[in-house]
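From the methods appendix. Each design record in this collection lists the tokenized structure first, followed by the designed amino acid sequence. Records were kept in a plain field format so they could be parsed without special tools. The example shown here is representative of the layout used throughout.

RECORD:
FOLD TOKENS (152 positions):
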């Protein structure tokens, strides 16, 4: 699994293009294979999936029963707005208008690593998620991580 590290502040131009920071580009595996850009499941942001990671997810999703109504509904929502994208020779990523609208993205964005993918956030929305009033990161970390074995 590829791990991507970092948080990068960028600007989106009027055509929806963003210059991907060089330090982030160096971490993105097999850029020639392209990427998938999609809506996040839980947040008002976008997800940039390296193609290899996307294909791993598709293998898992393809194992779901397409004749189960909940699965059908999930797949439709999960795949809504999915776009194949590339980083052009100038190092820019083009974000489609419907995805810009979904993410409430205007001009200033944050590209934030999320293990093996990159989230793309409107800067104000990203900062708001880091400081919610009803959020105790320590308690969440304990709940999520306390059952993991660190012996490996």
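DESIGN:
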């Amino acid at each position: 699994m590829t791990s991507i590290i970092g948080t990068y502040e960028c600007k989106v131009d009027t055509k929806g293009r963003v210059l991907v920071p060089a330090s982030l580009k160096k971490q993105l595996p097999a850029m020639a294979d392209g990427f998938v850009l999609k809506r996040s499941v839980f947040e008002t942001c976008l997800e940039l999936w390296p193609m290899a990671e996307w294909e791993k997810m598709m293998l898992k999703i393809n194992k779901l029963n397409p004749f189960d109504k909940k699965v059908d509904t999930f797949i439709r929502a999960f795949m809504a707005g999915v776009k194949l994208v590339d980083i052009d020779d100038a190092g820019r990523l083009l974000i489609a208008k419907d995805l810009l609208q979904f993410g409430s993205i205007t001009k200033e964005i944050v590209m934030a690593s999320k293990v093996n993918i990159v989230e793309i956030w409107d800067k104000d929305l990203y900062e708001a998620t880091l400081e919610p009033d009803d959020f105790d990161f320590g308690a969440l970390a304990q709940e999520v991580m306390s059952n993991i074995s660190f012996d490996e």
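APPENDIX NOTE: The chain has a mean pLDDT of 91.
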